[in-house]
């Protein structure tokens, strides 16, 4: 059982890092927060939680079933986010990011000017 747990963790840890980079490093950066939140919630609560419960209560896996469920979560997250990333139009996303930065900079400048005027 210990060697089985070790192998699961050896697969899960690198996949978890890839999933984190996909979701928080790429998708959140290009403004896909709603997609990330929705897809991770569906995968976690709709798929993996019932699978973990089935592994624990309906099989003899017990605690290892939790690790299998976590591995399933990370694997599905990598697939879903990887497909989303492959479908992104990077040039469009870069332009939209530049526009968001310009708009937020302009709004901050306006707010700063209004604050300075009200202080006088």
Give an overview of the whole structure:
With 120 residues, the chain is mainly alpha-helical. Helix content is 88%, strand content 0%. The chain has four helices and no strands. α1 packs parallel to α3 and α2 runs antiparallel to α3. The model has no long low-confidence stretch (mean pLDDT 83).
Protein topology:
Layout: H1 2-27, H2 33-58, H3 63-86, H4 90-119
Describe the structure concisely for a colleague.
With 120 residues, this protein is mostly helical. It has four helices and no strands. Helices cover 88% and strands 0% of the residues.
> How many strands in all?
0
Mean pLDDT score, rounded? 83
As a whole number of angstroms, the C-alpha radius of gyration is 21 Å
| Secondary-structure-derived class | mainly alpha
Cα distance, first to last residue?
Answer: 72 Å
Low-confidence stretches: none
Q: Shape, please?
A: elongated
């Amino acid at each position: 059982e210990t060697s089985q747990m070790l192998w699961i963790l050896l697969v899960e840890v690198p996949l978890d890092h890839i999933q984190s980079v996909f979701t928080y490093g790429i998708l959140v950066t290009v403004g896909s927060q709603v997609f990330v939140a929705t897809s991770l919630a569906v995968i976690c609560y709709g798929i993996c939680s019932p699978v973990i419960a089935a592994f624990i209560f309906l099989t003899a896996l017990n605690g290892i079933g939790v690790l299998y469920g976590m591995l399933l979560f990370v694997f599905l997250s990598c697939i879903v986010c990887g497909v989303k990333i492959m479908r992104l139009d990077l040039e469009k996303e870069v332009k939209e990011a530049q526009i968001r930065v310009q708009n937020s900079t302009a709004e901050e400048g306006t707010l700063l000017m209004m604050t300075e005027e009200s202080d006088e």
